[in-house]
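PROTOCOL LOG
Step 1. Enter all chains and additional molecules of the complex.
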Amino acid sequence: GQNIDQPTEMTATEGAIVQINCTYQTSGFNGLFWYQQHAGEAPTFLSYNVLDGLEEKGRFSSFLSRSKGYSYLLLKELQMKDSASYLCAFMDSNYQLIWGAGTKLIIKP
Amino acid sequence: ETGVTQTPRHLVMGMTNKKSLKCEQHLGHNAMYWYKQSAKKPLELMFVYNFKEQTENNSVPSRFSPECPNSSHLFLHLHTLQPEDSALYLCASSQGEKVTGELFFGEGSRLTVL
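Step 2. Run joint prediction.
Step 3. Record the structure below.
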């Protein structure tokens, strides 16, 4: 079967670093996506990983290990505006996106 | 501003009403999607249109009826809904012949069914 899992909620401090994990199980894989969704707003695309390793994009980085069915989103130098939900999704062999329920990230001053 | 506009942003309707949600994308994309987002649940794909042709219907009840008159516009017609249909309905678009995971979402229509 297929499934995907990420923590429901995380709290971090402004200026710090936070890592949001995502684990998945699937027989076919065509990449993993991270989206950011501020409350009341549209989800916006953050990153796409299809090969193992770390992809860095400014303060945000995304990591993938296909053998472990594991990804994380790393946010550095946290700012209050980073308070949002972060959605993890993988694309299966039928090119269907399988979404996690999202991780609500709360940033405290 | 994502280039995808949804109206109305909020809608309250009774179970016997008929209403429609509208989505317009200004990005020149060829594919459009309807998703349902409920609190603390994963996004649920409802319908996919590619070049105005419906390519996906994820076992959605017939009380939801999509319409795609052209590649820029997508509608979701609603009738005799149930209270459990209350959710945020998100429209998205993407570009390319193959399905892509890089979607551009609208801000959603928050639907409440009384």
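Step 4. Note key features.
The interface with chain A takes residues 2, 4, 40-43, 45, 90, 98-99, 101-108 of chain B (CB under 8 Å).
Chain B has a mean pLDDT of 92.
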